[in-house]
């Protein structure tokens, strides 16, 4: 289980995340929804230790994350697919995936990765910077998955991706959850995508959680009202 | 032409070409270390030449000890390894003590490493004296090869060339075929993301900087075979080395090789037909002109933005 209590993040004197609390279970997908600038990326970056934060509790399966550097958090079970994907542009697809093998005893890419993303196998010798946006997103997810995470954080995975590929990404996320039984936390602005992958939806507004629904009982109109500009 | 017969011109081209190759190998060894530190990490290390001097003094000292025990024929290989190890160790400490605090402040890095270079020069002067010292070269490294009666190719030059080829191959294997190389390249391309896939970027920085310094140490060992060593020896090569790395395309090893070759050959040939300083000025003008047209250097990679 991934547990966060009273998470606070500030940029200098300005507090931008105000005491967030959530728990996400194994084999659960949680969506954090909100407009641009509401704190989704800041939340994810602070969870990864990229931005400094304070919390009463931050644990993965009881293992404390507080004070840990970003690479230590990966060792403790967090994986991150950032907004904009951040693939390594001058490395081949295969090398990009191999960067995530720091914990691996064999140093080999697990076979299920290329089964999930056959296009990456076809393009494994191509430079990451030469892939399309959708292919780069698949690569970023594959690179996160080879770290063998307990919690996978995806920051706006549909941003800049064409609709047909968005459906593929939703399918892949559901497959990953089935195969790996991990916790997935995804930040999004697209409700249709969220409805395909998430069990629970939390809306964030100005750094505070203001609304929560399960997928089965979602008040779509209300959630959309928080997303519209 | 220039008052020479065609045969003489031919010999001059071969001899100056070889002289250019000797300059190329030392420049390449210096620039490879710098290509890692400046090209890959973005650290402007003005003390890079002093790491070369560490390697040179280490080799000179070992050669003196070896000469006193009668091992002059065998010491050089050990001297290269120790020169690398010592420069690596000092580089590791410098990164830990100074450089890691300045990664986001390139101008401060420039000032700090320039200060460090002055401190190191004074340490060399206090320890080894202001006079230049030379290594006792092994017997097998002396003499020359004569493919024709008019062409004289020194064996030490050939040795340095072989060493440069070996080090270049080693750097290539390290950067592109090893797990450490993958970590370095990931950290260079996106430090935050490298951390987010589990790479300890602070450790990578330390080892990368130290490796670049270690290679400068090897350059220093090679340098002792072609010239004598003084406290300011490193400063002779620092400007040329930066020029090589920038001209080649900062993050490209192939670019560094091509650039070192081009600059060394141009300087060597031009210095024969002009004065030494005019040869340097002409080369620099050509580089500035090319960089104005291609600011990212000769071998920048083309990627989808």
UniProtKB/TrEMBL annotation, chain A:
Gene3D superfamilies: P-loop containing nucleotide triphosphate hydrolases. SMART domains: AAA. SUPFAM superfamilies: P-loop containing nucleoside triphosphate hydrolases. InterPro entries: AAA+_ATPase (IPR003593), ABC_transporter-like_ATP-bd (IPR003439), ABC_transptr_urea_ATP-bd_UrtE (IPR017780), BCAA_Transport_ATP-bd_LivF (IPR052156), P-loop_NTPase (IPR027417). Transmembrane segments: none annotated. It comes from the Bacteria. Residues 2-227 form the ABC transporter domain. The keyword Metal-binding does not apply. PROSITE patterns: ABC_TRANSPORTER_2. Keywords: Amino-acid transport, ATP-binding, Cell membrane, Membrane, Nucleotide-binding, Transport. The keyword Cytoplasm does not apply. One of its GO terms (molecular function) is ATP binding. Pfam families: ABC_tran. Belongs to the ABC transporter superfamily. This is Urea ABC transporter ATP-binding subunit UrtE. It comes from Methylophilus aquaticus.
UniProtKB/TrEMBL annotation, chain B:
InterPro entries: ABC_transp_permease (IPR001851), ABC_UrtB_bac (IPR017779), BCAA_transport_permease (IPR052157). Coiled coil: none annotated. Keywords: Amino-acid transport, Cell membrane, Membrane, Transmembrane, Transmembrane helix, Transport. It is found in: Cell membrane. It is a multi-pass membrane protein. It comes from the Bacteria. The chain crosses the membrane at residues 20-39, 51-69, 75-94, 153-175, 209-230, 242-263, 270-293. Belongs to the binding-protein-dependent transport system permease family. LivHM subfamily. This is Urea ABC transporter permease subunit UrtB. The gene is urtB.
């Amino acid at each position: 289980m991934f547990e966060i209590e009273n998470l606070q993040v500030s940029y200098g004197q300005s507090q931008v995340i105000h005491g967030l609390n959530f728990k996400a279970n194994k084999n659960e997908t949680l969506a954090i929804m909100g407009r641009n600038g509401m704190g989704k990326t800041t939340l994810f970056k602070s969870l990864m230790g990229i931005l400094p934060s304070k919390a009463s509790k931050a644990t993965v399966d009881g293992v404390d994350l507080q004070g840990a550097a970003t690479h230590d958090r990966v060792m403790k079970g967090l994986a991150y697919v950032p907004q904009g994907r951040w693939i390594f542009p001058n490395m081949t697809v295969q090398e990009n995936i191999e960067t995530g093998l720091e914990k691996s005893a064999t140093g080999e890419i697990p076979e299920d990765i290329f089964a999930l993303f056959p296009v990456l196998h076809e393009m494994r010798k191509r430079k990451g910077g030469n892939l399309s946006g959708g292919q780069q997103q698949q690569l970023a997810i594959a690179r996160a998955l080879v770290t063998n995470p307990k919690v996978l954080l995806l920051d706006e995975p549909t941003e800049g991706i064409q609709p047909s590929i968005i459906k593929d990404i939703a399918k892949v996320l559901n497959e990953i959850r089935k195969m790996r039984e991990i916790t997935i936390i995804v930040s999004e602005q697209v409700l249709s995508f969220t409805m395909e992958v998430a069990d629970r939806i939390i809306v964030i507004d100005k750094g505070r959680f203001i609304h929560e629904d399960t997928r089965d009982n979602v008040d779509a109109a209300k959630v959309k009202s928080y997303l519209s500009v | 032409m220039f008052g020479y017969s065609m045969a003489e011109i031919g010999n001059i081209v071969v001899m100056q070409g070889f002289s250019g190759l000797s300059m190329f190998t030392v420049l390449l060894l210096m620039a490879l270390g710098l290509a890692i530190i400046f090209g890959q990490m973005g650290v402007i290390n003005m003390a890079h030449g002093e790491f070369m001097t560490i390697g040179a003094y280490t080799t000179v000292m070992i050669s003196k000890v070896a000469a006193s025990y009668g091992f002059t024929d065998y010491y050089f290989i050990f001297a290269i390894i120790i020169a690398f190890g010592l420069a690596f160790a000092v580089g590791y400490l410098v990164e830990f003590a100074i450089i890691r605090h300045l990664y986001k402040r390139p101008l401060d890095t420039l000032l700090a490493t320039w200060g460090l270079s002055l401190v190191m020069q004074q340490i060399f002067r206090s320890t080894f004296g202001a006079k230049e010292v030379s290594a006792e070269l092994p017997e097998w490294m002396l003499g020359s090869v004569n493919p024709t009666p008019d062409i004289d190719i020194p064996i030490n030059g050939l040795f340095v060339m072989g060493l440069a080829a070996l080090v270049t191959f080693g750097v290539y294997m390290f950067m592109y075929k090893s797990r450490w190389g993958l970590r370095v390249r990931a950290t260079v391309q996106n430090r935050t993301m490298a951390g987010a896939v589990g790479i300890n970027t602070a450790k990578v920085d330390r080892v990368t900087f130290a490796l670049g310094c270690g290679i400068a140490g090897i350059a220093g060992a090679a340098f002792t075979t072609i010239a004598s060593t003084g406290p300011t020896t490193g400063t002779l090569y620092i400007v040329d080395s930066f020029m090589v790395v920038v001209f080649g395309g900062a993050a490209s090893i192939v670019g560094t090789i091509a650039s070192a070759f081009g600059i060394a050959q141009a300087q060597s040939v031009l210095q024969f037909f002009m004065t030494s300083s005019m040869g340097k000025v002409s080369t620099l003008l050509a580089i500035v002109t090319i960089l104005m047209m291609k600011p990212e250097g000769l071998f920048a990679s083309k990627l989808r933005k």
